[in-house]
Design goal:
alpha+beta, 2 domains, 4-stranded mixed β-sheet
Length: 174
């Protein structure tokens, strides 16, 4: 008996098959992905290959969604650098009491207390050391207030309803 030659299977596209074209801002990363079934009789790697392709597509999608034109790691770092710093307002003070951010970054104060608070620039009661930095209204529980810092420096602030006990500092660096 002569050895039989394995039959080669091919898949002819039908109406259920679809080709997905992944578009990114970088033409080198553009891909076509077919949804044609993988012939599992020829290999057990079909499900693994599908998972790998899915992860690849998700990674490319996340990269292009970030709008990053340089390396992927620097995009994540720049997004994190511009994310607002968060400060909780509690009954005992601002947590953290001092935050350090970069020029252009904002700070968001979130009232986690059950009482209202008003975030304001020093000095009390004029609140005028930093123009525009004043929530100007009660922050009820779970309310928040954000302020972007556009100039390097050290800025002190307080709660207008508890000006001598609830105080904080924002340090803004280049």
């Amino acid at each position: 008996m002569s050895p039989s030659k394995p039959t080669e299977r091919t898949h002819e596209p039908d109406d259920e098959d679809m080709v997905i074209h992944v578009m990114t801002t970088n033409p080198v990363q553009q891909h076509n992905v077919s949804t044609a079934p993988i012939d599992s009789s020829s290999s057990k790697k079909g499900p693994v290959l599908g998972v790998v392709l899915l992860l690849l597509l998700l990674g490319i999608g996340a990269y292009s969604f970030s709008g990053n034109k340089s390396s992927p790691s620097s995009g994540a770092a720049s997004l994190a650098a511009l994310a607002p710093a968060q400060v909780s307002i509690t009954s005992s003070g601002f947590v953290p009491a001092t935050v350090t951010i970069k020029v252009g970054q904002a700070v968001t104060w979130i009232n986690t207390d059950t009482a209202p608070h008003i975030v304001a620039s020093d000095p009390y009661p004029t609140d005028n050391a930093l123009s525009g930095f004043d929530s100007q209204q009660n922050l009820s529980p779970n309310d928040h207030y954000s302020f972007p810092f556009d100039k390097a420096g050290t800025y002190t602030y307080h709660d207008d309803l508890n000006p001598y006990t609830l105080v904080g500092t924002v340090i803004v660096r280049q």
